[in-house]
Amino acid sequence: MKTAVKNTNNLEFNSDLEKIDFIADVIQLDLLHDMVVITEAKKVDIAKKMSVSNSFITQLFSGDKRLSLNHVAALAYYFDLNVKLSLEKKHQCKIINYLQRIKEDKNIQVADKGKRYSIGVHKELAESKQKSV
């Protein structure tokens, strides 16, 4: 998503690699969002458990660094989570609809950081998710 151009109705990409980069960002932010909602963990707690710096965790949440499968496995291990990875056919607009849905959710903050997106979950969302479990 580093070079995606945002207009009012769509995201424009100059290449397939830019599309893939955007999809990777969406997957990562979705995964981190789910982890925070489920565990109610703060970034500092995540850093301590994974034995990494606070700044590294911040970079993961901002999209400046990528999650690896080892990171996902560490999150699952340290926070006692099950991981389910699956692939399925989707409609081309699903990613754009996903991003729009996140922006419209009043419990989630989406920051456009120079063509990169970062999400922050409000405490109320985490609390409501916990009550529904």
Can you tag this structure with a few keywords?
single chain; 133 residues; mainly alpha; 434 Repressor (Amino-terminal Domain); two-stranded antiparallel sheet; 6 helices; globular; disordered N terminus
Secondary-structure element pattern, one letter each? EEHHHHHEEH
CATH C-level name: Mainly Alpha
Helix content: 40-55%
Q: Specify the CATH architecture.
A: Orthogonal Bundle
Strand content is: 5-15%
List the uncertain runs. 1-9, 114-119, 121-126
Distance between the termini: 33 Å
The structural domain count equals 1
Q: Mind describing the biggest β-sheet? A: 2 strands, antiparallel
Q: Number of DSSP strands?
A: 4
Taking strands numbered 1, 2, ... along the chain, how are they ordered across the largest sheet? 1-2
Textual characterization of the structure:
The protein is mostly helical and 133 residues long. The chain has one domain (5-83, 90-132): 434 Repressor (Amino-terminal Domain), CATH 1.10.260.40. The protein is built from 6 helices and 4 strands. The protein has helices spanning 16-39, 43-50, 54-62, 69-78, 94-104, 123-132; strands spanning 5-6, 11-12, 108-112, 117-121. It has a two-stranded antiparallel sheet. Helix 1 crosses helix 6. It is globular, with a radius of gyration of 15 Å. The termini are far apart.
